[in-house]
Fold this sequence. Notes:
Layout: H1 8-13, H2 34-43, H3 46-50, H4 53-67, E1 72-73, H5 80-85, E2 90-92, E3 96-98, H6 106-111, H7 117-120, H8 122-135, E4 141-146, H9 148-157, H10 165-173, H11 175-199, E5 203-208, H12 216-222, H13 224-233, E6 239-243, H14 250-255, E7 260-262, H15 269-276, E8 281-286, H16 295-309, E9 314-318, H17 328-340
Parallel strand pairs: 1-4, 4-5, 5-6, 6-7, 7-8, 8-9
Antiparallel strand pairs: 2-3
Helix pairs in contact: 2-4, 4-8, 9-10, 9-11, 11-13, 16-17
The structure holds coproporphyrinogen III (CP3).
Amino acid sequence: xxxxxxxxxxxxxxxxxxxxxxxxxxxxxxxxxxxxxxxxxxxxxxxxxxxxxxxxxxxxxxxxxxxxxxxxxxxxxxxxxxxxxxxxxxxxxxxxxxxxxxxxxxxxxxxxxxxxxxxxxxxxxxxxxxxxxxxxxxxxxxxxxxxxxxxxxxxxxxxxxxxxxxxxxxxxxxxxxxxxxxxxxxxxxxxxxxxxxxxxxxxxxxxxxxxxxxxxxxxxxxxxxxxxxxxxxxxxxxxxxxxxxxxxxxxxxxxxxxxxxxxxxxxxxxxxxxxxxxxxxxxxxxxxxxxxxxxxxxxxxxxxxxxxxxxxxxxxxxxxxxxxxxxxxxxxxxxxxxxxxxx
Length: 343
Ligand SMILES: Cc1c2[nH]c(c1CCC(=O)O)Cc1[nH]c(c(CCC(=O)O)c1C)Cc1[nH]c(c(CCC(=O)O)c1C)Cc1[nH]c(c(C)c1CCC(=O)O)C2
């Protein structure tokens, strides 16, 4: 059994008593830190950085040392899964991820493989092993994957989009293809998360970043069943499901076989607790834009948030990833305010 000096986040995730609220931030390993930008510069590109285990490990640990968060999250991207299945991506400067080839037909889906993480994603597993050794039990490590629906969006659309209308068109007009693709992504994701756990991840989070573009009915058909399969398959460590914009699915989230439900800032805290129920831990949900305000405002909003969530069965976080142009001192203010909170 691993000897963790700080296991607050794991206890909170399992619904056990904690002496203070644990805190981490989505996208904490990234451009907000000058130290990250320096390593990224050295690596040459995002993909070079993500696929070099020593460098990925270095930027994973930076927020633990610099910001004092209660967990590290492995530096990678949700798009490494499509790549491992045979659909490579490029990261275009100032544009974001692009898939030069996209999925159009059943034949395209059939050409994809269910990846073997020990081969196609070995670089992530190697990075996890280095992080675990360098963290030496200071804080737990979070592993992650994209939800199958969010990955389908990129694999069909080929790039980011406000509407993902090409991907949604496939759901409405090519249901069979969509389900075949979602199942293949799900099978890869389960194997991948299990491999991350075997390599040392202490908790895993599923990011359904584009959940909010679906109707409640479509969400129940095309996203939830696949997230449910993943939750049912992962029994080794706590699982967090974060579905951005899926306010309509909060009651369904409460029925998943997961431990933590992530909330975005559009979701009312008391209402979410009612809808999700008392059995799960909640995570979130400060608007990342609060971190553009004054130190006093940040403290005020952070304390008010904790007061609404309560200090138990709760993990403090933002309602989505931190924006790259946020002042690290403001981030530190948010984290310190959580750590100093007295009920
Ligand atoms: C949708 C999504 C992606 N990637 C991810 C999601 C789900 C979470 C979310 O909704 O924000 C997840 C992700 N991406 C990255 C992490 C690292 C760990 C962490 O949270 O600190 C995580 C957890 C690194 C990254 N992934 C990316 C960067 C920036 C690239 C760089 O440093 O040059 C980082 C640090 C690139 C990326 N990757 C993706 C986009 C749309 C972009 C471009 C936008 C941007 O630049 O922020 C896809």
